[in-house]
Amino acid sequence: MKKVYGSAAEALEGVVFDGMLIAAGGFGLCGIPELLIDALVESGVKDLTVASNNAGVDGFGLGKLLETRQIRKMMSSYVGENAEFMRQYLSGELELEFNPQGTLAERMRAGGAGIPGFYTKTGVGTQIAEGKEVKQFRGEDYILEEGIFADLSIVKAWKADDTGNLVFRKTARNFNPPAAMCGKVCIVEVEEIVPRGSLDPDHIHLPGIYVHRIIQGEHEKRIEQRTVRKREAAQ
Amino acid sequence: MPWDRNQMAARAAEELEDGMYVNLGIGIPTLVANYVGDKDITLQSENGMLGMGPFPFEGEEDPDLINAGKQTITELSRTSYFDSSMSFGMIRGGKIAAAILGAMEVAENGDLANWMIPGKLVKGMGGAMDLVAGVGKVIVVMDHQNKHGESKVLKACTLPLTGTGVVNRIISNLGVLDVVEGGLKIVELADGVSEEEMRAATEATIV
Asked: A25, CA 20 to 30 Å: which among A51, A77, A88, B205?
């Protein structure tokens, strides 16, 4: 089966529909599927629910889909970097479901692993626990959280072979593997598609079974907080 | 003289023991890394890294290498990378020995509030709820009072909670307090701070 597509727009053909649930990889602006986000903007699909740790920044990443009002609801752990997000949220145009970061990651992983719910200690006794089942294990309270089963996963990896075996780079891995796992269809954008056999099978981070469509392209990879240290002056 | 930010960070670093895997929060906790000295400490960054190194030299920033505060950082010879579900698996699973975090309020029963102020901009809890629920020991580093001079060490938190009964130790500008049965116990006073001053600045029960 051919998994490699010519462009992000081509890869989205036949899989997007209004009101769908999309799981997106990335942490801040690190390892986000920039090209697929741009193509979703172009597609005009609307009323999206997006499960993503963050919501991009104004004018980049998921911020672009917010500007065009294509997102109806976000499922995130931290959204502080985006003024347009806050404006839409405070005016009631955008729905927001806060998830503790680890709970969000585990909800994606669980969805991908066929686990509809799991119990966690995270959030017990806080606002996050409101309306959720509480169960005791070994004398301690845990709350029930549900797996995320997305219609589509959009993911960024470093390298792929044409069968969809993926390798990520440094902390750009973050939410990408669990996001990839939980979608009915998973589209991955990579910096380089390499020949079959050139990736060491022992060093594959996510096997191609989770990946349905692959595109290759140029990434801007914007840095959110550039921090550096001074070089010691030469003695 | 109460401790300043760097003295608080230095005192917090004394909590760390050889071989520990530790998560440092944003703000004063980040400074703790400057005071670990020769101790063999591995810093976790919850976006998917163990063995966090210092900020890069100018021109060596890598957009694929950031910490949980989204700052560019570097790797060390011991570094490993993993995805977010494994990262929080090790947090939730109790593999991280300690988290050093900032706080808005701490209560005498160990309740912690550090993620939202109702009516103000809500940015989200990020990984804070997972960390306080999962790590071995939660150490809060913060100023003892807010800018209005009100105690942040309370009988009960007034802000929405990050976790219940999770804090083990508070390191403030006035000294060190432990959460014990019935309230807080003074472990140490900052140089020149009297027990009276500590008690006056603390709303919580001191036992």
From this structure: A88
Q: Is the pTM of this model over 0.90?
A: yes
Q: pLDDT tens across B28-87, in order?
A: 999 999 999 999 999 999 999 999 999 999 999 999 999 999 999 999 999 999 999 999
ipTM for the predicted complex: 0.96
Domains and CATH numbers, chain A: 8-116+148-216 (3.40.1080.10)
Strand order of the β-sheet with B153-154 is B112-113, B105-107, B153-154
Give the whole-angstrom CA distance, residue B59 versus residue B148: 42
> Under a CB-based contact definition with an 8 Å cutoff, are residues A64 and A82 in contact?
no
Q: Which residues of B are catalytic?
A: 46
Contact indicator for A45, A69 with CB cutoff of 8 Å: no
Provide the shortest C-alpha distance from residue A98 to chain B (in Å).
7
Answer for the pair A37, A65: CB distance below 8 angstroms, yes or no. yes
Residues A126-134: contacts with CB under 8 Å, at least 24 apart: A126/B129, A126/B160, A126/B161, A126/B162, A126/B163, A126/B164, A127/B160, A127/B161, A128/A98, A128/A99, A128/A100, A128/A103, A128/B125, A128/B129
